[in-house]
Amino acid sequence: MSDRHEVSHMIVRVARAHQLAATCLLRPLGLYLGQELLLMRLWERDDQSQADLAKALSLDPSTVTRTVRSLEQQGLLTRRPSERDRRALVVSLTDEGRALRDQVEHAWSELERAALAGMPDRQRAETLRVLRRLEGNLTAALPEIRAACPPGVPGDPGDPGDPHHP
């Protein structure tokens, strides 16, 4: 492997390992990867529209619709028409959804512990700083990269389902 691409290769490998570990920790709770992120948003502020959740999570609205539907079927959420805009749906936690919070937070603590094992506080802080820098760099480069996407590629800037589409 070329040194020129080592960082990108490691990002992919770390992301895969993180996703696998998170999946293993969440499945016993009856959750699929990504569902916990939507729940976390609602734990921070309950009663949000699906559109607001999609925007806050930078997800396609159809992805949020599927996730909400699945969590609703599990009895963790409810949906109801908005009082201000009857076309919009407001998503709310059920008592079962609220009760899952401690277990999900424990799973995420375990994930964090595993990922940072053996790293002193200073190295943990530096890792977080570098990750934020990488995210900032990629986010800044995204408009130019997305403009070069061939039509039909997920995240294509011309895709009206894309949450970043104007």
Mind explaining what this structure looks like?
- With 166 residues, the chain is mainly α.
- The protein has 2 domains: 3-115, Orthogonal Bundle (Arc Repressor Mutant, subunit A), CATH 1.10.10; 123-150.
- The chain contains 7 helices and 3 strands; from the N terminus they run H-H-E-H-H-E-E-H-H-H.
- The chain has helices at 6-26, 35-44, 50-57, 61-73, 95-99, 101-115, 121-147; strands spanning 48-49, 77-81, 89-93.
- Strands 1-3-2 form a 3-stranded antiparallel sheet.
- The model is unreliable at 156-166 (pLDDT under 50).
Q: Count of DSSP E strands?
A: 3
Rg, Cα atoms, Å: 18 Å
- The end-to-end span amounts to 39 Å
Shape: globular
Helices and strands: which structural class? mainly alpha
User: What is the chain-wise order of helices and strands?
Assistant: HHEHHEEHHH
Q: What does this entry show, briefly?
A:
The chain is mainly alpha-helical and 166 residues long. It is built from seven helices and three strands. The chain folds into two domains: 3-115, Orthogonal Bundle (Arc Repressor Mutant, subunit A); 123-150.
Q: Topology, please?
A:
Elements: H1 6-26, H2 35-44, E1 48-49, H3 50-57, H4 61-73, E2 77-81, E3 89-93, H5 95-99, H6 101-115, H7 121-147
Antiparallel strand pairs: 1-3, 2-3
Helix pairs in contact: 1-6, 3-4
List its traits.
single chain; mainly alpha; 7 helices; globular; disordered C terminus; DNA-binding transcription factor activity; HTH_MarR-typ; MarR family transcriptional regulator; transcription regulation; transcription
